[in-house]
Amino acid sequence: MRPSDAVLLALLLALFVTSPGHAQPAFKNRKGPDKEFMAQVGEATVKAVRTKPAKLAIEEYKITTPARDRKLLTIRMIWYGSVTGKKFTSEITISVDATKQDRWEVLDIHYGDDFVSTRGPSARALERLKDQFNR
Question: What global pTM score does this model have?
Answer without folding.
Answer: 0.78
